[in-house]
Design goal:
- It is built from twelve helices and six strands.
- By secondary structure, it is mostly helical.
- The protein has a two-stranded parallel ribbon. A two-stranded antiparallel ribbon has the order 3-4.
- Helix 3 packs parallel to helix 4 and helix 5 crosses helix 6.
- It is elongated, with a radius of gyration of 29 Å.
């Protein structure tokens, strides 16, 4: 296409200039040297090099520090497959490679901060805010990495993009809101009872639901076991409060003094913090 347009422009007696676009504004010498060196070899250069021309990038950030480390790929652990626990013969799930890679990265960053790894470009020890993790796609690996970083007390800004309504913590909070609007919705109430905000186990939910004559909410109000009484009092207090305060105030009380945030994180892990923090807040002045 370059030759095609060059010939057409010159045939029209107009000026044609070939602009190589060799300057990179994002990377440093260390990264670009690795990329160019790999793309000079087959088969990587096939389809990339233009008419056999040398592939070359020049950094705009000339003289900036940089380093490239190549880590071995993290593969499934064959020794963990089929491993069993206890006389019942339950199979222990092998840890996913992405979880082990997330732990390796988090441990590396934590070690940099702990030992004061030098940051030559700033002439000081590295800080958590100096580290940016780029991923090919926002999937399960991001959640694994956030969990590991928070477990090691490494300050992390969290995911830069998320579908808020797809986060488990937000789904639990929305289920509670639907129950407060319609307590007779059995499926929603069962979701709230089994969720971290109430914490019923399978046996408790079965005892409550099996053979009940009416709605699940009516069955809960009729039970006298301590676990049922505690759940009923918690939900009744929220129902009464919902008549007098706006939704954001109700959720703020629940997540704060009500202990909801603690229960959500206890069940879902530290990675749920980002979703809880982004849960809709009141507009300024309201």
């Amino acid at each position: 296409m370059q030759r095609h347009f060059s010939e057409r422009v010159k045939a029209a007696k107009q000026e044609w200039a070939t602009v190589p676009l060799e300057i990179s504004f994002r990377s440093t010498d260390a990264v670009l040297d690795i990329v160019d060196g790999r793309l000079r070899r087959e088969p990587a250069r096939d389809g990339v090099a233009l008419d056999g021309a040398e592939i070359r990038h020049r950094p705009w950030r000339a003289g900036h520090a940089g380093r490239v480390e190549l880590w071995p790929p993290v593969l499934p652990d064959p020794a963990a497959e089929g491993r069993t626990l206890g006389p019942a013969g339950r199979t222990e799930a092998a840890e996913a490679p992405r979880a082990r890679l997330a732990r390796m990265i988090a441990q590396t960053v934590a070690e940099w901060i702990r030992t004061g790894e030098p940051l030559p470009s700033r002439d000081r020890p590295i800080r958590a805010g100096d580290v940016l993790v780029l991923v090919r796609r926002r999937g399960g690996f991001v959640a694994e990495l956030l969990r590991e970083l928070k477990r090691l007390d490494v300050p992390v800004a969290g995911a830069d993009r998320m579908v808020l309504t797809a986060q488990l913590a937000v789904m639990d909070l929305m289920a509670l809101g639907r129950f407060l609007l319609l307590p007779e919705d059995d499926l929603t109430l069962a979701t709230v009872l089994k969720g971290p905000l109430i914490g019923f186990d399978e046996d408790q939910l079965f005892i409550l639901a099996q053979g009940r004559p009416g709605s699940l909410w009516s069955a809960l109000r009729a039970r006298t076991e301590p676990w049922a009484v505690e759940a009923r009092e918690t939900l009744s207090a929220l129902l009464a409060r919902a008549d007098f305060v706006p939704p954001h105030a109700l959720y703020a009380e629940l997540l704060g003094a009500g202990g909801g945030r603690r229960r959500l994180l206890g069940r879902l892990g530290y990675e749920a913090e980002d979703a809880i923090d982004e849960f809709p807040q009141p507009e300024p002045g309201l």
